[in-house]
Amino acid sequence: MSNSNQTELAHKVYNSLCAAIEELNWKYNKVDSTRISFEVRGDDLPMSFIIKIDEDRQLVRLFSPLPFKIKEDKMAEACVAVCTVNYKLTIGSFSLDISDGTLVFRVTNSFRSSVISEELLEHIINYSCAFVDKYNDKFLMLNSGLSLADFLKAID
Question: Which CATH class is domain 3-155?
Answer without folding.
Answer: alpha beta
